Amino acid sequence: MSPDSDLLDKLALADGVHAVRASDGLVFLDVDRDAYFCLYAPVAADDGGNAMRAAIRAQLIEQNLVADRPAPGAVARPVTRLWREDCGPDPAHVGLRDLGHFLRALVRTAWRFRRSSLAQMIAHAQRCAAPTRHASHANVAARFERLCLWLPFRITCLFRSLLLLHFLRSYGLGADWIFGVSLFPFHAHCWLAHGDLLLAERLGKVEGFATILQIERASA
Questions:
Q1: What distance in Å separates the CA atoms of residue 66 and residue 27, rounded to the nearest whole number?
Q2: How far is residue 188 CA from its own chain's centroid?
Q3: Residue 6 to residues 9, 20, 50, 128, 215, Cα–Cα distance (Å)
Q4: Helix 157-169 and helix 137-148: axis angle, to 10°?
Q5: Which of 216, 199, 55 lies closest to 122, judged by CA?
């Protein structure tokens, strides 16, 4: 087991908190507070003895990121995949039916985005199973990208991911909702994927992010 895994596995994360190593630090996502916390903790720090680990643990307990109890042992964490983009042709035509789905998804997303916390959005995506239909994730995502070009305003990655979840549901599809982080400088980003296939996202935008949270088969 690698030293960085040893350090994380010695911490009992608080409820709703997710963590991952990124470069020479640790990043914590507190879903309930909708906040990220970064800690400089190079891998070599794990060789600094119990005093260094105790100091790190005390700092994290003070921030309510870890619980003051023994760690449960090794914890399964999201794997940062080798992502790929769809190389197929774009859809030949975006019709009125697609536009209708997009507008309904936009209204639903705006309503939920304004009234829900991050924790509520995630909980909804976890429990809302998409109906089963036959459609291509790549094709629907390509239609979504075309329709987004007509939006008269810029949207954040969180809003865009939720919008795409709603749009996919119109075609009976769900997707994996990925949250990624990078350090020095800190950046956070989220996007959707189907397995290792990126949906309406570019490889160059996500390849530098470590996965801190992955919601499998999400829907909205």
A1: 12
A2: 9
A3: 5, 12, 13, 35, 24
A4: 130
A5: 216
Return the CA Rg of the chain.
19
The reported pLDDT for the residue numbered 17 is 94
Name residue, tokens 């794997």: 79
- Nearest Cα neighbor of 113 from 51, 156, 173 is 156
Residue 173 to residue 5: CA distance in whole angstroms = 34
Q: Which DSSP state fits 13?
A: B
Q: Please give the Cα distance from 24 to 4 (Å, whole number).
A: 9
Q: How confident is the model at residue 48 (pLDDT cuts 50, 70, 90)?
A: low
Residue 85 in contact with residue 198, Cβ under 8 Å? yes
For the stretch 87-125, pLDDT in tens is: 766 665 789 999 999 999 999 999 999 999 999 999 999
Report the alpha-carbon distance of residue 66 to residue 83 in Å, rounded.
Answer: 31
> Which has the closest alpha carbon to 28: 175, 148, 183?
183
When pLDDT is averaged across residues 60-86 and rounded to a whole number, the result is 83
- pTM for this model (two decimals): 0.90
φ and ψ of 28, to 5 deg: -120, 135
